[in-house]
Design a protein that fits this description.
265 residues; alpha+beta; Rossmann fold; Dna Ligase, domain 1; D-amino Acid Aminotransferase, Chain A, domain 1; 3 domains; 5-stranded antiparallel β-sheet; 4-stranded parallel β-sheet; 9 helices; 13 strands; globular
């Protein structure tokens, strides 16, 4: 099997050890792995059987799919998950319970305060802020200048749940907690703890999973009155929490899934 691991230059440098995991395991599985840096150009004349796209680039994913390459995650997931407004609209029509969410347009004014503002294409808690009045809202729009959503603030701030999914199956749930910030992202210093899901939580999570064909992604849930509610989907999900706090080898699991779902012609 010929496999591409696709990154942009910044994320490749930032995730060097994670990329090494792929090379080590692909070598053991006799998979011909090539690291493709999109900044350096993509050679469409010599295509792989499978591409793992670890950059938010749905157009590239779609182009590879049209050329017959099996792409993980799919261009549909890339286009839906990497724009938080797209995610909200798609799941809202599927009947998934979500926080009240608005697209910030030129004419939009928050209907109440406080609200959470976040860039639609952001990740890792970047530019996620709580605004308490119109002045803070106006300042945010001027500073950030990106497509943005506004969300209702849930009751349980500073904790959320990251659920790792491979092949539409729940692999592990990790609770992220911060004592100093309403954002609990691990990369921002939040604590990570293994979390045992209740049967009800598994059922709620599975409702979201069933709306997609997930190869490998993270589903993030926040807590409102002690109950989980879907927040966002991480298509290019990180694995630091798993490798730091558990013995789960998510790269091994992911590659085994890819091998079992790839038919070479």
């Amino acid at each position: 099997m010929k496999l591409w691991l696709v990154y942009d230059k910044f994320e490749a440098e930032r995730n060097r050890r994670y990329i090494d995991f792929y090379f080590e395991k692909c070598h053991n599985k006799n998979i011909d792995l090539t690291l493709v840096i999109v900044d350096d150009g993509v050679d469409f004349n010599h295509l792989p059987d499978v591409a793992i796209v670890r950059t938010m680039n749905p157009d590239l994913s779609e182009q590879l799919e049209k050329l017959g390459v099996k792409v993980y995650n799919s261009s549909f997931i890339s286009r839906t998950a990497n724009d938080k407004w797209n995610t909200y609209c798609y799941l809202k029509q599927k009947g998934i319970r979500l926080p009240e969410t608005f697209l910030v347009t030129d004419s939009f004014t928050p209907p109440y305060y406080p609200m959470v503002l976040k860039p639609c294409m952001g990740k890792g808690g970047r530019c996620v802020e709580i605004i308490n009045n119109y002045a803070e809202f106006a300042s945010y729009k001027e500073r950030v200048g990106e497509k943005t959503i506004a969300q209702k603030v849930v009751s349980d701030k500073g904790r959320d749940l990251r659920v790792y999914v491979v092949g539409n199956k729940i692999i592990k749930a990790m609770l992220r907690v911060s004592d100093t910030d309403f954002r609990s992202n691990f990369c921002l210093g939040g604590k990570a703890l293994e979390y045992d899901l209740s049967d009800w939580e598994k059922s709620e999570i599975q409702k979201v999973i069933n709306q997609f064909d997930i190869a490998y992604a993270g589903l993030d849930f926040i807590f409102d009155d002690g109950k989980i509610i879907f927040n966002e989907m991480e298509d290019v999900v990180g694995a630091r929490m798993l490798y730091t706090h558990t013995d789960i080898d998510i790269v091994e699991i992911y590659l085994n899934f890819i091998i079992s779902h790839t038919v070479l012609t």
